[in-house]
Amino acid sequence: MSFAATSSFARASSLAQRAARNHMRRRVRVGAAAAPAELSTAGSSPAAVGKPTFQLLNGWFCPFGHRATLALEHHAERVEYEWVEALGWEQRADVNNVTGTGKEWWYHWKSPQLVRVNPSALVPTLVPIDPNTNEADESRPVYESLVTVDFVDAISGATGMDRLVPEDPYEAARMRVWADKLNKECCSPYYGVLVRKEDDERREHFDKLISGLKAFSRELEKTSGPVLLADGQLSSADLALVPWAYRYYVFEHYRGADYVIPENDPELAAYHEWYHHVMALPSVARTLPDKDRYLEHIGKYADSSARSKVANAVRRGVAAHDLDDEKDEY
Predict the structure, then answer these.
(1) Burial of 112 by CB count in 10 Å (0-12 exposed, 13-18 middle, 19+ buried)?
(2) What share of the chain in percent tops pLDDT 70?
(3) For residue 195, which phi and psi values (nearest 5 degrees)?
(4) 32-41, 53-62, 269-278 — which is least confidently predicted?
(5) CB–CB of 194/209 below 8 Å?
(6) Is-contact 135 129, C-beta < 8 A?
(7) What band does 299 get if pLDDT is binned at 50, 70 and 90?
(8) How many CA atoms lie within 13 Å of 84's alpha carbon, on the beta-carbon side?
(9) What span, in angstroms and rounded, lies between the C-alpha atoms of 293 and 61?
(10) Strands 142-143 and 125-128
(11) Which of 201, 194, 212 is nearest to 295 (CA)?
């Protein structure tokens, strides 16, 4: 693999090592750049007695994968997991000028296990560990980021205020509606700001994102705050937005001061209160990637040289959430 891929895995390894030091209850297994095949052949960690246990096939840089990590960390006392770094970036020549940048592009390396268990080969993907054999049961994978959040919450056995999907069916329905709304209006436009080349196109996506955040702020004001559910109960909808809200800082670096989320807009006051609250939660704070490392990584999207299904979808003019496995394959 190239130096770029090696660097990505080294950064992932550093992140995983810090996680392991903070959470000795889990083993974290990260793909080594020199031998990526180890990801699918290394032994699984023993399933914890009485606790659901999973392999989490993930990528340290991926905000979609971050959602699953957030749910698992929220339920860390109820669900065990082993992190498996399943994505990497490899630099290759853009011989067909697919990206239109005239530059080299970056290519996803995907672990063989991820390709086997997920038809789209996307992260996050959860693979259960059979408690009887302590082996990964690849016949029962769970994937799609919003689905993994709901699944982890359900299998955790949590009750009351610890639930991410509330027990009240009406509130549960409201959270699912808002998770989908935030995904479309506040997460997908992030890629349009970065991948699209014309400033008017970038601005269109940024304005849509701000409009989505203002709608979110209005919804936050309907309860006691600072999150969507009453009495500070963290929800699946909150976790849907956290990875992207944390990453909005990259706009200023790559697109300038006009693309900073306004701090003094009263229509965004509830959003900013929410942001500072959730980012300080221990279960959230320990999942956040290093800002400098992520800033370097996302440069592949900012110069439109990234080749991924999300980048390809946005490049051909559709929203990130409307990616097509066939049309956007690379």
Answers:
(1) middle
(2) 75
(3) -85, -40
(4) 32-41
(5) no
(6) yes
(7) very high
(8) 29
(9) 9
(10) antiparallel
(11) 194
Question: What pLDDT does 6 receive?
Answer: 32
Beta-bridge partner residues of 248: none
Region of 27 on the Ramachandran plot (φ > 0 left; ψ -120 to 50 alpha; else beta): beta
Q: Whole-angstrom Cα distance, residue 287 to residue 293?
A: 14
Sheet holding 142-143, edge to edge: 80-85, 53-58, 125-128, 142-143
Do the Cβ atoms of 81 and 156 come closer than 8 Å? no
CB burial of 34-71 (b: ≥16 within 10 Å; e: otherwise) equals: eebeebbebebbebbeebbbbbbbbbbbbbbbbbbbbb
d(CA 125, CA 110): 12
Give the confidence band of 319 by pLDDT, cuts at 50, 70, 90.
low
At how many degrees (to 10) do helices 169-182 and 199-220 cross?
Answer: 160
> Taking a C-beta distance cutoff of 8 angstroms, is the pair 204, 192 a contact?
yes
Residue matched to tokens 């290394």: 42
Is the pLDDT at 270 greater than 90, yes or no?
A: yes
Residue identified by tokens 């003094």 is 264
Mean pLDDT, residues 261-286:
98
The yes-or-no verdict on residue 33 having pLDDT over 60 is no
Angle at the Cα of 25 from the Cα atoms of 7 and 128, rounded to 5 degrees: 80
Which are the contacts of 70, defined by CB distance < 8 A and separation ≥ 6?
149, 239, 242, 243, 283, 284, 287
pLDDT of residue 101: 62
What is the DSSP track for 160-210?
Answer: GGG-SS-SSHHHHHHHHHHHHHHIIIIIHHHHHHHH--SHHHHHHHHHHHH
Q: Is the pLDDT of residue 34 over 80?
A: no
Is pLDDT above 50 for 147?
Answer: yes
Answer left, alpha or beta for residue 160, where phi above 0 means left and psi between -120 and 50 means alpha: left
Beta bridge partners of 222: none
